[in-house]
What does this fold into?
Amino acid sequence: MNSNSDVLLEVKDLQKHFPVRGKLPFSPTRAWVRAVDGISFFIRPQETFSLVGESGCGKTTTAKLILLLEEPTAGAIYFSGKDIGKLKGQDMRQYRAAVQAVFQDPWSSLNPRMRVGDIIAEPLVVNNDVSKSKIKERVQELLLNVGLEPMSANNFPHEFSGGQRQRIAVARALALNPQIVVLDEPVSALDVSIRAQIMNLLKDLQVQYGLTYLLIAHNLATVRYLSHRVAVMYLGEIVEEADSEELFTNPLHPYTKALISAALPIRPDEQTEAIVLPTEVPSPTRPPPGCRFHTRCPFAFDRCVAEAPELRELAPGHKVACHLY
Amino acid sequence: MKGELATKPQPAKTDNLVLQVRDLKTYFFTKRGVGKAVDGVSFDLKQGETLGLVGESGCGKSMTALSIMRLNPKPASRIVGGQVVFQGEDLLQKRESEMRRYRGKHISIVLQDPMTTLNPVFTIGDQVYESLRLHQGLRGRTLKERAIQLLHMLRIPDPGARLSSYPYQFSGGMRQRAVGAIALSSSPEILIADEPTTALDVTIQAAYLELLKEIQQQANLCIIFITHDFGVVARMCDRVAVMYAGKIVETADTKTLFKSPAHPYTEALLNSVPDVKERVTRLYSIEGQPPPIYNLNPGCPFANRCPYVQSRCWEDFPPQKELAPGHAVSCWRYLE
It folds into this structure.
């Protein structure tokens, strides 16, 4: 694991609230969906940092904020020490090139009417002023690096299988030599026997190019395999953050425990009694007062209803937001 | 718990087999050629057991399930051979009108995405009533009472009021439980669950699986559980059949399959799945991808990805060989 303690990307008190409006145009805002509600974390160079949680916990919104696809309601994101909300002109272009993404579904993230070579070349054409022959060379090199035939540059996405398409998406993300790649559920749309191929490819490329990954996933086994550090999100907040091994061997927050116990191990003798949470996730428009997890928590007591716990560091690098500790 | 399933007089059976599928073949006839989606699938289902059908997308696991109920897409596909014996009768010989008395009454199915299974313009109540009216002939107050009982059994809070809700007002987990209520409304002997938890979140999935197990024990239900998730198999199934390119390549009880997988595909698949309980530094990955089901070669369909491939693997599909009671595999390695 990386011992470099420099920070490449830092997120501070980030918030994103979406308005809920009535059905008529110009109708007033009725409520706010607190998709991301004051989260802070940092990512070190060349590590894989994961955000885990169930649907609606705000992990994808966080990724979109980092990719500048959404504007934060409050808070800031710092890249190499610079506030990205204040970037302009050339600096902004550089940031956009340095942060790339691979999305979940390679059936919808690749334009079906473009040839694979053009898909991979597009970021190069848009961002750099390089000659056609250079671009062609670079595309061939990228295709080789993700394990595809250089010849396939002339084919269309529909001629490829899911795993191969995801490789194309990875090649496109790498075209501009990014520093950070945001992986939003990179394998969950793929078949079981193909997932290992892509996960291994991502691991190899990380070493080869010195990449930093922000991994968004709900499958804990995938997260454990790929990441160095993990943050668990619940209803727009981070409830626990730790080194990957620490989190999986010594989870502290009741929600993390429930998540890990609900993730089914693949050996029948390892089957433990799942901690079954009694109710479902409350609506993020009206998150419960106090600790947001108290409505489902098996250990909740009076203080949890009254007071929101703060994210505190219990051991070096292991933070948890829970009144039990 | 209240609202148990109505006990049905059990038909006298010579053995405890509920369903026998023999050499089932469902082919697609298209311009590209003949697609052998299900190609000679055989298995037995015993009273009260859960059988897992495992495989990747396109391996024919869902087509097998649909073919058992004769709901395979028509006219694109046809069941060209085999038998599906339920209560001593071959369902494949039934007339379409007779089949309707089996579907939903004796054999029910729960599909992956509850939002597409439920009709968005009818209330949950209407959709539960439909099956109860049709198969049980219930009317009026008894109909409503039974519907409430069912929703209660599937742990839908405040079932009386929820009857008049629409699917969009339910969360994902509640929708899937409402679908479960409809599927179980006529106390079927067999429930086919086709990836019922794939669209659900992990904690919701855990709760749903627990509930399904509980109901199974009460109702002595057989479940055919279709999934690609080995974690779900480990938790839910008594026996497993692994499918690849339209064929069952290995059958075993769950413990044996995980401990000593015999078929190279099963072995590779198990090694390529990361586990939450273990730290793995490098996953095994199966190179290549499953073959298209059109114009398959006569040999073993896994041959092009198999690390143990021999020359005869390209020529013939290996016959099934029983390694131990209940553990059968189709691979030339065991036929020397």
In short: Residues 6-14 of chain B have pLDDT under 50 and may be disordered. Chain B has eleven helices and twelve strands. Residues 17-106+190-207+216-283 of chain B form a domain with the Rossmann fold fold (CATH 3.40.50.300). The longest strand of chain B covers residues 17-30.
